[in-house]
From TrEMBL:
Keywords: RNA-binding. Pfam families: KH_1 (PF00013). This is K Homology domain-containing protein. It comes from the Eukaryota. The keyword RNA-binding applies. One of its GO terms (molecular function) is RNA binding. It comes from Favolaschia claudopus. The keyword RNA-binding applies. Residues 3-62 form the K Homology domain.
Amino acid sequence: YSCTLVVPDSVVGHIVGRGGKGLHQSHDISGAQLRAYTDKASPFERRASIRGTDQQIGEALIALGKRFMRK
């Protein structure tokens, strides 16, 4: 399974973390593969993809949500 999120550019740094630490932590918690990339069609947004089982994706979304709420 996969899930794509559209994230405002103003908060993506907090979710990704320094050196990708936030994505690595979310991966360690969930087991899902996470990736953030620039959307050339929209300079104010970035996309994040999550790949894994439905349970892994759910756990990754929860982990990312917790990071976002701490902002």
